[in-house]
UniProtKB/TrEMBL annotation:
Record-annotated membrane-spanning stretches: none
Keyword terms of this UniProt record: DNA integration, DNA recombination
Name of this protein: Tyrosine-type recombinase/integrase
Presence of the UniProt keyword Glycosyltransferase in the record: no
Cytoplasm keyword on record: no
Polar residues biased stretches: 322-332
Tyr recombinase domain span: 134-309
Lineage: Bacteria, Pseudomonadati, Pseudomonadota, Alphaproteobacteria, Hyphomicrobiales
Species the sequence originates in: Bradyrhizobium septentrionale
Stretch list, region Disordered: 311-339
InterPro entries: DNA_brk_join_enz, Integrase-like_cat_sf, Integrase_catalytic, Tyrosine_recombinase_XerCD
Length: 339
């Protein structure tokens, strides 16, 4: 017998009998645990947020990650009065997190706090004075280098599912949660148009010959997505991440080579070939111009350095017209009082 917790079985039985009991008494069925929610508590405020339109418009992945954080917040603060929530208490909670986790918690709490402010549950934003620890300068995901791309391509040839996954990531430049949803129905007139799963923001990607060749090299199928598992089912974002990690290992690539690193490589490539901030935003579905400027500023610096090198090319800058050989003994000119 499977080791199922008795409380889980009891909850399932209660869920089955609840509607029947309500039907017999003529009462409306109530949400499990609703009678334990005290008005004005953090518990009640978070449950209220889960029922709001602002919560429902979030993508599935975003709701899942933020709910996990909000539930941990409920475990610690659920019985407290939401009206008494202040920045010092939240600061103490965040101080126990890593810099990256602090930012994830702040994103999750921000939507809930805005909900509380809208419904007048609180008068002041307790997040306004919260300070986050500085992120270490790691540079984030490693953008793939040309040699690493060539190594993957040598191992996984055109006509394989592995190569199609790689080309979709690199040529379309989208996140794995969007790549696993891509299909022929999204392409019209050589343009792939979709909405990002996380934000709903549309992106428009021209299907270049190289990507089209990878698509055409695959056997015909009736699947709605280009990529399917060995069982013929669509990938989940997490499952695809594990699958692509294995492909990189098969190609002998270092652990730093990830699916998101190909997205960064695509953005770097386009920026270095003259894409503007707004063109990058349209291609990658970014809502903030600052995201695009990370790549255009870096590309502009490289471009200006190359242009500067052309200006001084052949001028002898950095090479003295009469170099002094270190192998020859040279007279040392005395200076100062001893001259």
């Amino acid at each position: 017998m499977l080791p199922i917790d008795r409380s889980v079985l009891a909850l399932a039985q209660l869920q089955r009998s609840g509607p029947r009991r309500a039907a017999k008494t003529g009462q409306q069925p109530t949400e499990i645990g609703a009678d334990r929610l005290k008005p004005g508590t953090v518990n009640a405020a978070i449950v209220s947020y889960y029922s709001s339109a602002d919560w429902k418009v979030l993508g599935d992945g975003t709701r899942s990650s933020r709910r996990a954080i909000l539930e941990r917040f409920r475990e610690e603060c659920g019985t407290f009065q939401v009206a008494g929530m202040h920045s010092v208490a939240i600061q103490k909670i965040l101080n126990r997190k890593t810099p990256a986790a602090q930012r994830n918690w702040l994103k999750a709490l921000r939507g809930w706090v805005e909900h509380c402010l809208t419904l007048k549950m609180i008068r002041k934003n307790p997040l306004a004075e919260v300070k986050l620890a500085k992120m270490p300068r790691t540079g984030g995901h490693h953008p793939w280098e040309t040699s690493e791309c060539e190594q993957f391509e040598k191992r996984h040839a055109i006509g394989t599912r592995a190569r199609l996954a790689y080309e979709l990531l690199l040529q379309a430049g989208q996140s794995r949660c969007d790549v696993v949803r891509m299909g022929r129905q999204h392409i019209r007139g050589g343009m792939m148009t979709m909405g990002r799963q996380k934000t709903g923001v549309p992106f428009n990607v021209e299907v270049m010959p190289r990507l089209q060749a990878a698509i055409d090299a695959m056997p015909a199928s009736n699947h709605l997505t280009f990529l399917v598992t060995a069982q013929g089912k669509p990938f989940t974002a997490a499952g695809f991440g594990n699958y692509f990690r294995d492909l990189c290992r098969e190609a002998g690539l270092p652990e730093r080579c990830t699916s998101h690193g190909l997205r960064k490589a695509a953005a770097t490539y386009l920026a270095e070939r003259g894409f503007t901030d707004h063109q990058l935003m349209a291609w990658f579905g970014w809502t903030s111009i600052s995201q695009a400027q990370v790549y255009t500023r870096s590309a502009n610096r490289k471009r200006m350095a190359r242009d500067g090198a052309k200006l001084i090319s052949g001028t002898g800058i950095g090479s003295p017209s009469d170099p002094v050989s270190q192998n020859q003994s040279q007279p040392i000119e005395k200076t100062g009082a001893g001259k």
